[in-house]
Amino acid sequence: MEKKKSINTAESILIVGSFFMFLYVGHNLVFINELSHFFERDSLWFLLPLITLVIAVHSYLKR
To answer: Angle at CA 27, nearest 5°, toward 46 and 13?
Structure first.
């Protein structure tokens, strides 16, 4: 029988934290009204929540 994987505390903190970082950055720091504005310098703030989300997914999949 195959053992089910469940998300652990560290991964859930990373996922929830990245979600709140996306909300904060999108609301307070960066306003993107067109796709061309996404590649400007201010939108680099979206890299931090994206990196934390990738770390959480990578940790979950590699267990």
So the answer is: 60
